Amino acid sequence: MAQTPQQYYSSAANYGSGQYVTLNDVVNNFMLMYVGYDKLIDNVDRYNVLFHAKRAVQELNYDAFKEIKVLETLVNDDLKVILPQHYVNYVRISYEQGGVLFKMSENKTVNWAKKYEQDENANYAYLFDIDGNLIEEQSELDRIRIEGTYGQYPYPGPWFGRWGWFYNDYWYFGYTFGGWYGADASNLNSNPTFVINKEDGVINFSSGLKGSTIVLEYITDGLESEDPSQIMIHKFAEEFVYAYIKWCMLNNRIGVQEYVVRRAKQDKSSLLRNAKIRLSNINPRRLLMALRGNDNWIK
């Protein structure tokens, strides 16, 4: 139902809603316009359409939408941050210092590990609880990362200026001396690092970030709400959702000619490309502004 200008401007929840259509409306429109005895799809249940519509929303969020969620949170004492509920992948992770965001790089080397309790008197055999499960304890890697102090080696010598962890009167470095040659250039900076533990659903940070403010920019699957009337789809991608549902329906049916399925798949792919181009919002004026200074002489 269309909103009056008074209804639109009277509630902040309505701001910008004209860009979107709800998933509930998309499913209703598909049932009305694409299903019937004189249509290509003659009989289908609404819950089947809703299932494929949700899959279309996920595909759009993975590949086409540029809508990024931003979360600000604090790092706890274990140097961990729990991943958001509908997290799919991160775009950028930064830490705040004096109102400035410093981009952090992902540490490809492992700075966390699981450790199981072992019996020193039985050839270091693993120990189990009464239910037969392995008993976990804090690993040495985690202990150094959490309790150690991240900084530069201050003493003269070949290690001077190297970044590492000072823990229990010892220094620990990420590379052996001489290992910087041929090292990963993305990690050669003074900013703290992180690594994502997908199994436990947390982000592990390097030492020195306890209590710091972290800004996580990430994408989701677009299904934060279970209510179809609360799931929004950009109008530029609406036709793709219809084509995706139609292709899924025809592809899963028996007796449909192959050329019909192939044509539906081609329509779906072409409409996805159109949606990506429209959502990219490429403007010639913006490109001109970006390229205007390319011919300047560097003195």
What's the structural blueprint in terms of helices and strands?
Layout: H1 5-9, E1 20-22, H2 23-33, H3 46-63, E2 69-74, E3 80-82, E4 87-97, E5 100-103, E6 105-106, E7 115-116, E8 118-119, E9 125-126, E10 136-137, H4 140-147, E11 149-152, E12 163-167, E13 170-173, E14 193-197, E15 202-205, E16 213-220, E17 232-234, H5 238-251, H6 258-280, H7 284-291
Parallel strand pairs: 6-14
Antiparallel strand pairs: 1-17, 2-16, 3-15, 4-5, 4-16, 7-10, 8-9, 11-12, 12-13, 14-15
Helix pairs in contact: 2-3, 3-5, 5-6
Give a summary of the structure in a few sentences.
The chain is α+β, with helices and mostly antiparallel strands and 299 residues long. The protein is built from seven helices and 17 strands.
Count structural domains: 2
Large-scale geometry: extended
Cross-sheet strand order for the largest sheet: 2-16-4-5
End-to-end Cα distance, whole Å, is 61 Å
Task: Kindly state the number of beta strands.
Answer: 17
Residue-averaged pLDDT = 80
Order of helices and strands: HEHHEEEEEEEEEHEEEEEEEHHH
Helices, by number, come to: 7
Poorly predicted regions are none
Helix/strand/pairing category: alpha+beta
Question: What is the oligomeric state here?
Answer: single chain
Q: Strand content of the residues, in percent?
A: 15-25%
**Can you give the helix content as a percent range?**
25-40%
Rounded to an integer in angstroms, the radius of gyration calculated over CA atoms is 27 Å
Main sheet: strands, sense, barrel: 4 strands, antiparallel
